[in-house]
Structure formats: C-alpha cells, structure tokens
Amino acid sequence: MKIVGIIPARYKSSRFPGKPLVDIFGKPMIQHVYERSVQSTLLSEVYVATDDERILSSCKERNISVIMTSNKHPTGTDRVAEVAQTIEAEIYVNIQGDEPLISPNSIDTAIKGLLNLTPQTGTNLIKKIENMSDLIDTRVPKVVVNDNFDAVFLSRQAIPYPKGHIAPDYYKQICVYAFTKETLLRFKGMRQSRNELIEEIELLRFIDNGIPIRMIEVFEDTIAVDVPNDVVKVCNVIRGFQ
C-alpha cells in the first residue's frame, strides 16, 4: 500500500507571513517538518505542497521533494487534495507545515488508525489539554468527541462547557490528518461549510457533511507556529533535546 505524506505550506500567513522559511537553528521551519516526516516508518513518500516560488526554491536547494500548486486553495487540505490528483496513493497524510516538532510516531499513529476504518472516513490526532493557556488560546482548536472518539465538533473556544456534575476532558487538535483518496476528493468537491467558515477549522467541512473523522489520542505534545513568539518556544524545546 502506498501512503504519501503532504506538507502544505503557504507564504502569506495573516499572523506570520513567511513562516515556513523562518530560521530555526540554521534550517527553515519547513525543513524541520520534512525531516521529521520522512522518519515515519509508514510513509512511502513525502512532499511539500506550496503556491509560493520562495518556498519552492528553498525546498529545491535542500533536496526536499516539492510540488507547486494553485494559489486559490482556502485550506491546506484542499491543497493536499490537488496533489492527490497527480500523485497516486491509497492514503494521504496532511502534515501541517507549521509543526516543526511533530513526532514521526504520531504520524504513524494517524495512519494505523485509518487502516482499521472504512474507506469513507479519516483520522486526526488529539492530545489532552494539560494547561490553562492552551484551553483559553483561540489559536488552539478544541475537540469534542463521542463515545467512539469520532469528532462531534471543533471550536476555538473551550468546549464542552462543564455545566453538569461530570468534569470534562478537554482535547486539543494536533494537525495531522490521514485520509483515503476517496474521502479526500469528496472533501475537495464540497463547498466550505458554514461552521468551517465561522471557526476557520477545515475539519468541520467533513463533520458538517456527515463524514466521520476518528480522533486518536496521542501523548507527545507539539507546538504549532502561529506567531513569531512560538518560534522561541520551539527553539527552547529543541535546545532541551541537544
């Protein structure tokens, strides 16, 4: 079975323009994501998918497999779906380009979870929130799951609300998604849903169209780079590894 990892990367981030190329210990961030992704034991190939010549050139200089895509995509998963139309595989894994600390084991976990499901679904990773800063940070999507751990809703607010006598577990989304080609192309053919546009969380397009997404809990944390200060946090973690 061929399983391909795709790292969508755009230059024009509203909060942090050019962040895929920000330097982290002598390497652009996108290189850190790529190098961690290729350590997955289940991915057959890994590509960066971009719409920007600067990212394209940087990847080529570093022998990173890269594909130029349209600049019209509203989300990273739409960009991955374009790649799926030219790169044949049974499973595609969307690995966000702003996750320089992503664990290869987490990538494999998303893939293994999908192998046990029907072709009409997908998987995403979640981690239990352990600090209040993540819970109140609107840049961190929170996830509500049902008893089967399928996603019910995602929000930038802290959900679920603890009105009852049971204390809830809060989960944050880790942005690694695994899809069959069938599911990915269905996503591409759908208009952005109302909830997706309200929250700016692309996974809601699946949920709003009745496509189940199985959430798989992982225990390795990561830091998504949304603003320049996040780079400092990432550097501190990497420094601790050295």
**In angstroms, what separates the terminal alpha carbons?**
36 Å
CATH class: Alpha Beta
DSSP helix fraction: 25-40%
Structural class: alpha/beta
**How is the CATH topology named?**
Spore Coat Polysaccharide Biosynthesis Protein SpsA, Chain A
User: Total helix count?
Assistant: 9
Total discrete domains? 1
Mean model confidence by pLDDT? 95
**How many strands in all?**
11
N-to-C series of helices and strands? EEEHEHEHEHEHEEEHHHEH
- Uncertain runs are none
Rg from C-alpha positions? 17 Å
CATH architecture verdict? Alpha-Beta Complex
Assign an overall shape. globular
Strand count, sense and closure of the main sheet? 9 strands, mixed
| β-sheet strand percentage | 15-25%
Q: Spell out the CATH superfamily.
A: Spore Coat Polysaccharide Biosynthesis Protein SpsA, Chain A
Any overview of this molecule?
It is a single chain. The chain has 242 residues and is α/β, with parallel strands linked by helices. The chain has a single domain, classed as Spore Coat Polysaccharide Biosynthesis Protein SpsA, Chain A (Alpha-Beta Complex). 32% of the residues lie in helices and 23% in strands. The N and C termini lie far apart (36 Å).
How are the SSEs placed, and which strands pair?
Blueprint: E1 3-9, E2 23-24, E3 27-28, H1 29-37, E4 45-50, H2 53-61, E5 66-68, H3 76-84, E6 91-95, H4 104-115, E7 122-128, H5 132-136, E8 142-145, E9 151-155, E10 171-180, H6 181-188, H7 194-199, H8 203-208, E11 213-217, H9 228-241
Parallel strand pairs: 1-4, 1-6, 4-5, 7-11
Antiparallel strand pairs: 2-3, 6-10, 7-10, 8-9, 8-10
Helix pairs in contact: 3-6
